[in-house]
Amino acid sequence: MIYDVAIMGAGIAGMATAARLQAQGLSTLLLEAHGRPGGCAGYFRRRGFSFDVGATTLVDFEQGGVGGEFLDSIGMTALEGEALPGYVAWLPDRTVTLYRDSARWAAERLSGLGNTPAHRALWRLLDQLAGAFWEASRRGIKMPMHSLADALHNLGTIGLANLPLARYVGWTMGDALRHFGLRDDPALVGLLGMLIEDTVHSTVDRAPLINAALGITIRGAGLTRHRGGMYGFWRRLVGHYRALGGDLRLACPVEHLDGQFGDFRLHTRQGHYAARQVVSALPAAITARIAPDLAKPLHRYLKRDADAEGGAMVVFLGVPESEVGGQDFTHHQLMQDYSLPLGNGNNMFISVSAPNDTESAPVGCRAVMISTHCELEPWEGLSQEAYAAQKEAAGKRLLDYARRVYPNLGENALVYEIATPCTYEHFTNRPRGTVGGVRQTLRNANQYAIPHDLGPRGLWMVGDSTWPGLGTVACVLGSRIVAEGAARAARQMHYFQSLITQTQ
What we know:
By secondary structure, this protein is of the alpha/beta class.
């Protein structure tokens, strides 16, 4: 059998692309190296608990949002989950509640972070940028722009009224802070830095302003935690994809890809597969390795972004419900010290499963995930003994920090596991255990991102290695762009095949 489209990698970008194409009547094959789907938005199960290994929330999955459009496009009903009202940011000297409701958030940020004319002007600019570019994302803005047609399309998504905001494409978040005289405000810069690292994996001085504005306002776009966490989400999505007729093969890594438009060949240990088009939802480095002849255009991007990679550490806890009581919110973000670099616990995220969510935890218990970004180098080249000691110390540090929110957390843990970049490398096959795509800067984001269409016709890329980058919402938006392109190419192929048949 020859499939219309084969998709490599069943993370959220790959699965969303496959489901979109299958829903349009194309035959799809989805190949995943791991034993379950999800990638860096996946899960694992222990003793009745379900733990999210990376993403713990789905962004903009309500009606009219990027995720809502995806669900509509494949005929899937709304998510079964909890619309998070926001979360609490624990700064070294104060707490700030990051409300989902825009009016409450507008009041909270002024009362908690400063109410000077400069503060108000900065937030006004961020709101303008976020409003314009969230809407453009929902309308399918395309980057990088290759043609006049792309530019005209993007003008339509942004709108003439918002066109003046394009002058900020060369600004960083640090530029905006300096423009308003706020770069030395520790609480403001600290909070913005936390939100920026969490969403675009960058710093205030390197993050593109527009990308930073989208990341900072992500709660307003809507955060949802599915019942059962990512475990519950993937069960529903995989079931729906298969009901559409999609073919998902797990534990089936692609070892080599060759061929051309209309006749690609995917070689695996389980056999060889043929497809007219191929979508790689794998990291760029893996794509380059398994398709060395087809993916030569990737090498210049890999060289450029070699110093823009990062990893993560996570503590997974299954605990009695009593250990996470006393808080109105189930999600918290913590910074320990304004003067220290972010990461390694100085900016960490706590996600707790919802009460009565028995898909995430047994009755009377809750699943807890404590995560932080980290550098990769400290985890490389260690002896087995040194690695074990470093891993244990890192887990203890994160748990100690988390007790600022939940003082008794982990005292009677039923599950206690620690993940490092080495863990991610082992289970997700990502080189060096990198997570979440490259850290976004002016030189690798938006117009300079890896394109979805690499060059060889019929070979596409999607996911956090490409535009628009990191997170569930970005991957779902990328799937829309790639599915539209692959479906268009399939129609063109069918048209020309029909002409050939008629002339014979």
